[in-house]
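Reviewers of the previous submission asked for a worked example of the structure-prediction workflow described in the proposal, so we include one complete record here. The input consisted solely of the amino acid sequence. No template or homolog information was supplied to the procedure at any stage.
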Amino acid sequence: MASGNDMKAAESTYGGFLTLLRITIPVVVVLTAIIIALIA
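From that input alone, the workflow returned the following structure tokens.
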């Protein structure tokens, strides 16, 4: 069984993952748009 501490650690990891995702997705979109503009 997972203890409360394990759950807190998992939530912290998941929160960090979501934050990373929120930062990464716009960067990827911008880079993709730039590359498409260069190719077109």
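The chain has a mean pLDDT of 90. We consider this example representative of the routine output the project will generate in years two and three.
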